[in-house]
């Protein structure tokens, strides 16, 4: 039912679609008739003004013109394009490689403008420009075998990113990177698209930040780092962008701050740290940027301050401390930067004024309690004076005196083992020492009582021994400290004891 209705419209449309082919066929037949006509008659001419022009000539001229239009403007051969300076356009097609040689424009299979420049056998060769899919110029320069060999790379906004050599599409060889403001960012060698080899790095103001070797885009090997003002900051070895190996760190004024080993950007191994004045501050071993191992610390005037062992930047282990004028002060064990353990306090003549134990920077007289007399002589030498003292209970005691140290030790027989002796008390007579201890105990006691009148950490008792003598007795940590004043206001002696605890802890 529908077919009879639309059939009258379809037939004319089919005839219309065939019109171009019919017109071309009729024109070709007419040209053929004119060109092959053997007899020349009046109908073989066309009047033009006062002249007659043969139809065959008109057809020949028309065909020549059509050929010229086609081969010059529509699809010119390579030699015609070169002759007239035309730039032909090519579209990449799968399975159909380009073969053209000369200057051309190339579009990719998606129709995006891709390349403009010289081709050789269809391959980019010579001066040319590459464009991104948005039609923005991306790279330009000299191409070789389809790849950019030397030239420039630009960002999407047209800013210059790189200028130099390329290999397989990547920065390679000598080149220059640029900051967005146009200043040089890096100048030197590249490998696989990143700085590698000798080069210089610059900040956004064009100031040199680093000069030396690069690996993987980072400072590596020998190099020099600079402050923003241009002064040398560091000279030496790098690894992965950090100081690593032997090097020298300097201040902006040019003074050497440190010279020695580095690991991961920190002082490590043997090195020397300096004051700003140029004198040595420390010489010795470092670890993770801190003094660690054996070394020597100095005052700014050049005199030694400490010589010995360090742990994480503080005195720890065996060492020797000095005053600012170079006078030896102490020799022995340290912990946490303080005298701690067995050691010696030294006088101005360099001789020991005290040999014994220390705790948190102070002499620890309680450490002697419980020791044997033999152990005391092993530490201090044979006692210059020994005195047997009778006691009320009839048990004799031995007093070992060391006048050079202003110390004396009370030796008792062990109740559990009469064949064994132990130190039951230590007596001190050095005025400066016992006065400092008395002041320390009194200050501590007053503070504790002020905070808590019922405190039990430190007990104090004052006893009148005679009209001319008194004793201030402090009890702390099970130890008894008896300060003897004779006359009443003159401190004469300190006795430190530990009761039965001393015997139980003898060693």
TrEMBL record:
Domain of life: Bacteria
TM helices/strands, residue ranges: 57-74
Alphabetized SUPFAM superfamilies for the sequence: Histone H3 K4-specific methyltransferase SET7/9 N-terminal domain
Pfam families membership: MORN, MORN_2
Keywords linked to the UniProt accession: Membrane, Repeat, Transmembrane, Transmembrane helix
Signal peptide residue numbers: none
Protein name: MORN motif-containing protein
Organism: Paenibacillus elgii
